[in-house]
Design brief:
single chain; about 375 residues; alpha/beta; Aminopeptidase; seven-stranded mixed beta sheet; three-stranded mixed beta sheet; 11 helices
Length: about 375
């Protein structure tokens, strides 16, 4: 991951030293925390439905199936309603998704049926935030993780953690916050909860991840080297924060590694050659994914079909450049490195990400994780 010691200096306090603060549970002024809510750390899989769907439609010839699957995808209303078009970044031929995992769902809910999700100001945070950029011809994709504790300007609220934007004003405010930070237009919004992640991994028979050093989390022991994980074990893997050298920053890398491992496993398995298995795969994905209401069935189907040439090897994983760790009042925060970050956002928006990666190879997701 990219890490530059610029801007505010590091402190000896990483983002995970205070569990409540590291989870982003400090409430904005004028709101009341909702007590008794169990924290849950989600992994983003909306990218998976596009990659898997594209490969499926290209190899199994199931284009007609896309409508029945798309009917099951829940739409989030009003994500872009009320946004000032004149103040937004201009539209381009590329397509950008803002993808989040939210803590609004009960981690103990059955994975058999997704619960209803409603937005309640002040009660929800986005644990995982990823910006996914698809190039003009949809042949390459770039995934950039934004650490949830990133200290940024939130329109109308001043400086705050980026995940607080979702708590303050839901998807619309998070879109405005990310667009103001990156100067990249967000075309679509997606949300996934953790139970879908577990279900998908179990459906494909587990995933393989490489871990740098032995560690234990959630009652699961991970050994150095390649680990084969079930859905439940993968949840422990992506939830772990304590015991990792950089806390939440290392967990961001785990999120990306798990996502890449899942997409790679599906793309390389024989599942896509069997129509019944393919349907179960897409059916599971669609039941746990939520998108904005501007993404119609026709739009989703055409989009997925347009990605038929995209493969996991053509997806680049990065993390927003980090300048340091510190505190703002009682909150532990992550300071983004603005100059390098601006260079990244410009490269992403102008289709020059390959050249950026050549200049800054330290930002690419490695084959292993802490």
């Amino acid at each position: 991951m990219i890490s530059r010691k610029l801007g505010k200096p590091d402190t000896a306090v990483p983002p995970d030293t205070d569990d409540a603060l590291a989870r982003g549970t400090t409430e904005p002024e004028g709101t009341t925390a909702r007590h008794g809510r169990k924290p849950a750390h989600r992994v983003l899989l909306f990218l998976s439905i596009t990659l898997i769907g594209a490969i499926t439609l290209a190899t199994a010839g199931l284009y007609a199936l896309a409508d029945s699957v798309a009917d099951q995808v829940v739409r989030t209303p009003g994500v872009f309603t009320g946004l000032d078009e004149a103040a937004r970044p201009p539209a381009t031929e590329a397509m950008t998704f803002l993808l989040i995992g939210t803590d609004s769902l009960d981690p103990d809910h059955s994975a058999e049926e997704p619960p209803e999700v409603t937005f309640e100001p002040g009660s929800q945070r986005s644990d995982v935030i990823m910006l996914v950029r698809l190039d003009n011809n949809r042949s390459k994709a770039t995934v950039v993780s934004l650490p949830r504790d990133s200290w940024v300007a939130v329109p109308g609220y001043g400086k705050a953690k980026i995940n607080a934007a979702y708590s303050f004003g839901g998807p619309s405010l998070l879109v405005r916050t990310v667009e103001a930070l990156t100067h990249i237009r967000v075309d679509h919004f997606g949300l996934i909860d953790f139970a879908g992640f577990q279900s998908m991994i179990d459906l494909v028979g587990g995933i393989d991840v490489t871990i740098d050093a032995a560690t234990t989390a959630g009652g699961v022991s991970f050994h150095e080297g390649v680990n084969h994980l079930s859905g439940q074990q993968a949840l422990s893997y992506v939830r772990q924060r304590k015991g990792l050298p950089r806390g939440d920053l290392d967990r961001v890398q785990r999120h990306q590694n798990a996502l890449r491992a899942l997409v790679t496993k599906i793309a390389s398995s024989t599942t896509l050659s069997r129509p019944a298995d393919t349907y179960r795969l897409l059916d599971t994905l669609s039941r746990w994914v939520r998108v904005d209401d501007t993404f119609t069935n026709n739009g989703l189907r055409s989009f997925v079909f347009g990605l038929r040439d995209l493969r996991p090897t053509q997806v680049t994983f990065l993390t927003a450049p980090i300048g340091g760790l510190g505190r703002e009042g009682a909150q532990s925060v992550v300071y983004l490195e603005l100059d390098l970050g601006n260079a990244l956002w410009h490269a992403l928006d102008t289709g020059q990400i390959d050249a950026f990666v050549v200049r800054h190879p330290e930002g690419i997701l490695g084959v292993s994780s802490p």
